Amino acid sequence: MATKTYIQAITDGLDQVLSDDDKTLIFGEDVGKNGGVFRTTQGLQDKYGEDRVFDTPLAESGILGLAMGLAATGWRPLPEIQFMGFTFEAVDSIAGQMSRTRFRFGGEKNMPITIRTPFGGGTHTAEMHSDNLESFFTDVPGLRVVTPSNPYDAKGLIISAVENNDPVLFMENLKLYRSMKAEVPDDKYTVPLDTAKVVREGTDITVVAYSAEVNEALKVADKLAKENISVEVIDLVSLSPIDTDTIFKSIDKTHHVVMVQEAQRMAGVGATVVSDIAENDILSLDAPIGRVAAPDSIYPFALAEDDWIPDAAEIEAKVREILTY
Amino acid sequence: MANNDSSKPIVDFAAIKENLGSEYKMVQVLDGSAKVVNQEVFDSFSDEQLVDFMKKMVWERALHEQTMSFSRQGRLGFYAPTAGEEASEMGSVSAFEPQDFLFPAYRDLPQLIQHGGSVEKGFLWSRGHVKGNQYDPKYRAWMPQIIIGAQFVEAAGAALGIKKNGENNVAFVYTGDGGTSQGDTYEGLNFAGAFQAPLVAIIQNNGFAISVPRKKQTAATTLAQKAVAAGTPSVQVDGMDILAVYSVAKAAREYAAAGNGPVLIETLTYRYGAHSSAGDDPSRYRTKEEEKPWHDNDPLIRLRKVLEDKGLWSDQQESDYVDECKTQFKADLKAADAEPKQTNVEMLKNTFEVPTPNIKAQIAEFEAKESK
C-alpha cells in the first residue's frame, strides 16, 4: 500500500485494465507521448505501445464515434475527452448513439466504452474547462455516470467502469487530481458502480454530496462534531443510477437531510435525489429538505469562481438551518 | 508605397477557385444512351453478372413501388423512397464482402437488405420494431443512421478496429449530398485518413437534401473533392450506370483492403420520389421539366438496352420477375405482421446488460402490468 494522489490512483487503474485485457485501448487528444495534459496517461504509451495508447486528431465527436466503431469490432475503448466542457461537441455520440446501441439492437450488441473526462471548479481554468455538466448526461438512458471523491475510489471505480459492458461516463475532479492523497492498494480491487458510500457515520443529519463537495461536507462534519452535532456524510459515487436505498436508510436514522452539489441548482442531480426522497421517504423527515447548489448562472470566469462554488461554510449554514427548523 | 496595378498579385485566388475540382471526370462504362464507353471494363463482366445486376435493380424498383403502396395503405412507418438510385445502391453494395462492415443511412435499406438484412426486417425497421435491427451474423452491418453524418465517425472507428484486428476487410459507409455538410462526415474521413484505416465512403449525390438543392449545399464544384482535405483519394462516378458504380466500388474496396487508407466515391444520381413516405411533396421545390432528363437517364433503361441487345433479357422476363418479387414482399409483410409486440419489460432489459437498480424496479413493475 502506498500513498497516492487522486490522479496517480487513476493512472494505476488504467495501467491495471491495460494489463488485464489486451483489447483495451486508450486514446484521445494528447494522451500518447504527452501522457495527457494532466499526465493521467503518463508512461502508458511507453509501456503498452502506440497500438494500445494513441493520440487522435482534435475532434471530440470523432473520438467518441471512433470508440463506437472500435467497440463494434471487438475492442474495449477508453476514450478521453480532454475537458468535460468539450463533451458539448460530442453530445450526439454519447446521448444519440453509444447509449442507445444496445437498445437499438435488441440487446444483441453492447458498447463497453468508458469515457474519461475531467471536470469541476476551483483551479482557475479558462472558460468551458470547469463546468459541471453531469446532469446533461444523467438524463440519458443507457449511460452510467460515476465520479470518485478520493484516490481509493478513483482506482477501484475506473477498473469497474472498464470491466462493465455498458457505456460509462467517468468524471474526474480536476481540483482533486493533485490536492488529495490517500492510501491506495497496489493490488487490483474494484469499487461497485451503482452503490453510494457512507463516508462518515452520524446520527443527527445526513449530508448527501458527490465529488469534491464530499470533502467540503466532511470538513463540516469535523467542525460540528466539536459541538456534538453528528453529521452523516454520503458520497453518491454514482450519479446515474442513484443509490436511493443508502440515502433512505440514513434518513430513517437522522430524520434530516441536506443535498449538496457544485453544479447549478436547476434540474440537477440534487433535484433527482430530493424528488426521490420526497416521493419515498418524506415521512421520515422532521424538517424540510435542505439544498446547497451553485446559482443558476453560467459557470463563472476564473476570478469569480470562488464566490460561486458552494463551500463548507455554505453547507454548514444550511445544516444548522435544517437542524434548528 | 503604392502598389503597382500592373504587377502580378502574390496569390491569384480567382484562378485557384476556377480550377478547384476540375480534375474530377465522371467515370462511366455505359453512357446515357447505353453505348459502351469503356470496352475493357465492359468485357470483364460475364453474362450472368449482367443479368444479376439487372435483377437487383428490378428488385429494388419493385421494392420501392411495393413499399410506397404499403405506406399509402398505412401498413409501414418511415420509409425513404429509392427509385432512381438503383444503380448507385445495388452497384456499390455488390462490390463488398459479407464481413465488410456496412454503415447505412436511412435511404440505404436496400443495401442493408442485401448485406445481412431481409425485406421482412426492413419492414420491421420501418415500423419501429427492434427485430428489424437484428441481422444475419454472417454479415456485419449497423442499423440505418438517422442523425446525418454520425455513421461516418462510427465507420472510421470500425475501419480502425478492422485494421487492428489484422483483417482483410473494410468498413463502408453511405450518406447523401446533404450529409457532406455535416461536421461528423469530415471528422470520420479525417480520422480514417489519419489512421490510414480501410474505409470506403460513398456519397450518393441525388441532388436534394429534402428540398434543398445540391448547389445550395456547398460552393464545392464536386462533393468528391471534399475528401482531398483529409488526404483521401476520391472519384466521381455516373450513379445511373451500375457497371461503372460497381467497378469503381470494387476498385475502392480492393485499394482500402490492401492497407492504403480510405477512399471516397461520389455517385451522381437522382431521387425520383419524395424525401420520405411522410408527406414530402417534391413539386414544392422542383419542376417536372427538371426531373425529365433524369428519368430519361434511368439506370434500368440503360442496362436493359444492353441486355436486350445481347438477348439476355426481355419484357416478359422482367414482368415475371417483378411479379415474383412483389408476391414475396407481400409474404414478407405478413411475416412482419406476425412478429410479437415489443413490451416495456423487454425494452428495459435492453437498456443495460446488467440492469441498474432503478431499471430492475421498473422491470418488476412492468412485469406485473404486462403479464396481465
Automatic annotation (TrEMBL), chain A:
Cofactor(s) this protein cannot do without: thiamine diphosphate
Tell me the Gene3D superfamilies matching this sequence.
Answer: 3.40.50.920, 3.40.50.970
Q: Does the keyword Oxidoreductase apply?
A: yes
Matching SUPFAM superfamilies, A to Z?
A: Thiamin diphosphate-binding fold (THDP-binding), TK C-terminal domain-like
Residue ranges occupied by any Transketolase-like pyrimidine-binding domain in the UniProt entry? 4-179
Alphabetical list of InterPro entries matching this protein: THDP-binding (IPR029061), Transketo_C/PFOR_II (IPR009014), Transketolase-like_Pyr-bd (IPR005475), Transketolase_C (IPR033248)
GO molecular function terms listed in the Swiss-Prot or TrEMBL record: oxidoreductase activity
Q: What is this protein called?
A: Acetoin dehydrogenase complex, E1 component, beta subunit
Q: Which UniProt keywords apply?
A: Oxidoreductase, Thiamine pyrophosphate
From TrEMBL, chain B:
The upper taxonomy is: Bacteria, Bacillati, Bacillota, Bacilli, Lactobacillales
EC number(s) recorded for this UniProt protein: 1.2.4.1
Q: How does it assemble?
A: Heterodimer of an alpha and a beta chain.
Instruction: Give the protein's recorded name.
Output: Pyruvate dehydrogenase E1 component subunit alpha
Catalyzed chemical reaction(s)? N(6)-[(R)-lipoyl]-L-lysyl-[protein] + pyruvate + H(+) = N(6)-[(R)-S(8)-acetyldihydrolipoyl]-L-lysyl-[protein] + CO2
What are the protein's UniProt keywords?
A: Oxidoreductase, Pyruvate, Thiamine pyrophosphate
CDD domains linked to this entry: TPP_E1_PDC_ADC_BCADC
Please state every residue range assigned to the domain named Dehydrogenase E1 component: 54-343
Query: What class does this enzyme belong to in the EC scheme?
Result: oxidoreductase
Could you say which cofactors this protein requires? thiamine diphosphate
This chain's function reads:
The pyruvate dehydrogenase complex catalyzes the overall conversion of pyruvate to acetyl-CoA and CO(2). It contains multiple copies of three enzymatic components: pyruvate dehydrogenase (E1), dihydrolipoamide acetyltransferase (E2) and lipoamide dehydrogenase (E3).
Q: Which domain of life is it from?
A: Bacteria
